[in-house]
Design brief:
This protein has about 110 residues and is of the alpha/beta class. The protein has helices at about 25-40, 55-70, 85-90, 95, 105-110; strands at about 1-10, 10-20, 45-55, 75-80, 100. A five-stranded mixed beta sheet has the order 1-2-3-4-5, sandwiched between helices.
Length: about 110
């Protein structure tokens, strides 16, 4: 589920928590898309620090947000994924599309370079 949004300069950070699966992904996707558009930001960080489980619907959520942000020339990153989630994300090919960072601050710092 979606916990909160954090405004970080040119980036919007979406902090997720709990399980991201077929049941929750559509709602989370919609909330992120609406907030991102309203924010006027260019970059997006998905913070997964408090996510306990993710399936292929979560991978789809991440890749879909990357496509949207990429279409406007922005950058997308994933932050805070533990070993279990990192393995799922890497198997889903997310690491080839965007950076994986230990925390959202590291991702935002990289965007500013």
């Amino acid at each position: 589920m979606l916990k909160e949004f954090i405004d970080c300069g040119t980036a919007l950070v979406a902090v997720l928590e709990g399980e991201i699966d077929q049941r929750t992904a559509a709602c989370v996707r919609s909330k992120i898309d609406v907030e991102f558009e309203l924010s006027g930001k260019r970059d997006l960080v998905l913070d997964l620090t408090d996510v306990s489980f993710m399936d292929s619907a979560g991978i789809g959520l991440i890749i879909g947000r990357w496509k949207n942000v990429n279409s406007i020339g922005g950058k997308t990153a994933v932050a805070g994924c533990g070993q279990k989630l990192k393995k799922i994300i890497e198997l889903g090919g997310v690491g080839r599309l965007m950076g994986l960072y230990p925390d959202y601050r590291s991702a935002v710092k990289e965007f500013m370079k």
